[in-house]
Amino acid sequence: MAHILLVEDDRSIVTNLTEFLQKKGFSITAVDGQRKALQILDESAAEFDLILLDVSLADGNGFAICRAAKSSTELPVIFLTASGDEYSVVTGLDLGADDYISKPFRPRELVSRIHNILRRYGKSISVLEYKNLSADIVRGTVKKDGQEIVLSALEYRLLLYFLNNQGIVLTRSRLLEALWDIAGEFVNDNTLTVYIKRLREKIEKDPQNPLLIKTVRGLGYKMGD
């Protein structure tokens, strides 16, 4: 589980973003100012995998934190900037920031950027979780209620696709494209129906009334809210 240091003084953003990122499998430590952030970096920088950093803070700014992080650690930094604030973006990148995202941002886009940067730093998340399910992508194992379950290769890849896209409605065509790429051969609509059914039989408590992989009538499927 990747541990993120969130430096942001807007309480509503902290609350909503923390809740969202925790659902995506991240551990979050949030502080609201420059002084606290610098203290944490000085005392326990090794505990973190990435810094999410607001430019404007009540007791200073994110530039000083980025400078300190880049001079004494190898932590990646993503700046949260006001929309259209080109100066902040350029300054942050000049200080060594790895990426930036403008407010108001789309949470799923932010998660995608976090994943990309963690991969770049060799810190990819190795365990994906949702409710009572966990998938260790390094070992290639899946557990339900702490007990390992056996999935076929395509069932496993299908589950990973849902875990990596929690909260997103996945159309049948999108799932077919994903399975086709994974299998290296054509996967038709009937095959997808079979694999969804088999996967539900293995992970759902009641496959006839699924709570993990839900059917979104007329659209496709979704895991998570």
SSE string: EHEHEEEHEHEHEEEEHEHHEE
Question: Could you say which structural class the secondary elements and strand pairing correspond to?
Answer: alpha/beta
Anisotropy-based shape: elongated
CATH fold descriptor of the largest domain: Rossmann fold
Number of strands: 14
Radius of gyration: 20 Å
Biggest sheet character: 5 strands, parallel
CATH architecture of the largest domain: 3-Layer(aba) Sandwich
The chain-level mean pLDDT equals 88
Number of continuous helical runs: 8
Low-confidence stretches: none
CATH class of the largest domain: Alpha Beta
Oligomeric state: single chain
Which strand order do you get reading across the main beta sheet? 2-1-3-6-7
* Total domain count: 2
End-to-end distance, in Å? 21 Å
Could you name the CATH homologous superfamily of the largest domain? Response regulator
Helix content: 40-55%
Which percent range describes the beta-strand content? 15-25%
